[in-house]
TrEMBL record:
PANTHER family noted in UniProt: DISEASE RESISTANCE PROTEIN RGA4, PLANT BROAD-SPECTRUM MILDEW RESISTANCE PROTEIN RPW8
Keyword set, alphabetical order: Plant defense
Any Pfam family hit: NB-ARC
GO biological process, one term: defense response
Keyword Repeat carried by entry: no
Organism this protein belongs to: Lithospermum erythrorhizon (Purple gromwell)
Residue span(s) of domain NB-ARC: 4-103
The protein's name: NB-ARC domain-containing protein
Keyword check for Nuclease: no
Length: 114
């Protein structure tokens, strides 16, 4: 994340602690939304560390962290607000797939559909 925010690529030589410290400093005076997608790590100590670091900088500016994960991980994290999302119905999934493959509103060609 720090590399994306700063554009610096020298982070490979830094420890995790130093990298997190730099990220906290970069975000301290900013309002931000961090989205973590497909999180599957249920290690409580890792999340407690991340939570501690981000609570230090987020509370006064209205910043948020959104984690997309499974129910078990959300429970382990003691998430303050959870939304259960159902998958798309088969018909909608197929329509979304066709729109992406063939273009919106265009008919699929018979030789590409089995």
């Amino acid at each position: 994340m720090v590399e994306l925010i700063t554009g610096y690529d020298n982070l490979k030589r830094k420890s995790k602690k130093d990298t997190m410290k730099q990220l906290v400093q970069l975000l301290k005076c900013r309002r931000y939304l961090i989205v973590c997608d497909d999180v599957c790590n249920a290690n409580r100590s890792i999340w407690k560390s991340v939570e501690k670091d981000f609570l230090e900088i987020s509370s006064s500016r209205g910043s948020k962290m959104m984690v997309l994960t499974h129910q078990e991980v959300a429970e382990m994290m003691n998430a303050s607000l959870c939304y259960h999302l159902d998958g798309l119905p088969d018909e909608d999934s197929w329509k979304l797939f066709k729109d992406r493959v063939f273009g919106r509103g265009r008919k699929e060609t018979a030789e590409l559909v089995v």
